[in-house]
């Protein structure tokens, strides 16, 4: 459900672990056209699949100082699963997206480093704001680097009911209290000083 948000987190993770030649004064760039993002919600009758859209992703990192700034914002109102009635209920009763139109992740810490080439596994920790409340969360991210180019993958679970959102279950339909997220994307590290 929040996969685009985590896509930018993955790129931020790559930025933090990247070689110094790429990381000093760097910024994150993501190619939405080369991004596959899915959420999956299991239930007794069928499995629901859908997507959300990224509103903004602004992450800057200065390796020399260790400073990270910015944030990742998902448009909560953009969620869709291919069923109009179900999506209207999701926005009205579960996400309350008219009241909470943004889902925000603020990365605070990265564990692991990105190899100049080949796969690397990282953990990204930070604050995940959903339904107006902040939650501590650590996300596993796999990155395959080729210089400044990055292939990003992540799979994780959000315990949305534990975090205070309503379970969409009905008398006949029992939905899981957790939603699974799967991301595959392409990103790039760019020197913020380039062209200056």
Chain-wise SSE layout:
Blueprint: H1 3-17, H2 20-23, E1 26-30, E2 36-41, E3 48-62, E4 67-80, H3 84-94, E5 102-111, E6 117-130, E7 133-146, E8 149-158, E9 179-191
Antiparallel strand pairs: 1-3, 1-9, 2-3, 2-9, 3-4, 4-5, 5-6, 6-7, 7-8, 8-9
Give a verbal description of the structure.
With 196 residues, the protein is of the alpha+beta class. It has a single domain (3-191), classed as Lipid/polyisoprenoid-binding, YceI-like (Lipocalin). Helices cover 15% and strands 52% of the residues. The chain contains 3 helices and 9 strands; from the N terminus they run ααββββαβββββ. The chain has helices spanning 3-17, 20-23, 84-94, and strands at 26-30, 36-41, 48-62, 67-80, 102-111, 117-130, 133-146, 149-158, 179-191. Strands 1, 2, 3, 4, 5, 6, 7, 8 and 9 form a 9-stranded antiparallel sheet that branches. The longest helix is centred in the first third of the chain and has 15 residues, at 3-17. The chain is elongated. The termini are far apart. 34% of the residues are buried. The model has no long low-confidence stretch (mean pLDDT 79).
Structure keywords:
196 residues, alpha+beta, Lipocalin, 9-stranded antiparallel sheet, 3 helices, 9 strands, 52% strand
Brief sketch in words of this structure:
This protein has about 200 residues and is of the alpha+beta class. It has 3 helices and 9 strands, in the order ααββββαβββββ. The protein is about 15% helix and about 50% strand.
């Amino acid at each position: 459900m929040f996969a685009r948000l985590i896509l930018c987190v993955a790129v931020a993770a790559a930025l933090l672990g990247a070689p110094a030649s790429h990381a000093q004064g760097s910024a994150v760039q993501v190619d939405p056209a080369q991004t596959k993002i899915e959420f999956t919600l299991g239930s007794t009758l069928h499995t629901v699949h859908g997507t959300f859209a990224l509103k903004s992703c602004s992450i800057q990192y200065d390796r020399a100082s260790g400073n990270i700034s910015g944030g990742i914002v998902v448009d909560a109102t953009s969620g869709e699963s291919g069923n109009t009635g179900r999506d209207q209920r999701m926005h009205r009763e579960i996400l309350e997206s008219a009241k909470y139109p943004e889902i925000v992740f603020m990365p605070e810490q990265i564990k692991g480093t990105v190899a100049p080439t080949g796969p690397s596994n990282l953990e990204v920790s930070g604050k995940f704001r959903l339904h107006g409340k902040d939650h501590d969360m650590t996300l596993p991210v796999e990155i395959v680097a080729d210089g400044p180019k990055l292939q990003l993958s992540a799979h994780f679970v959000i315990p949305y009911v534990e975090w205070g959102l309503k379970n969409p279950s009905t008398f006949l339909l029992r939905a899981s209290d957790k939603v699974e997220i799967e991301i595959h994307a392409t990103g790039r590290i760019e020197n913020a000083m380039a062209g200056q």
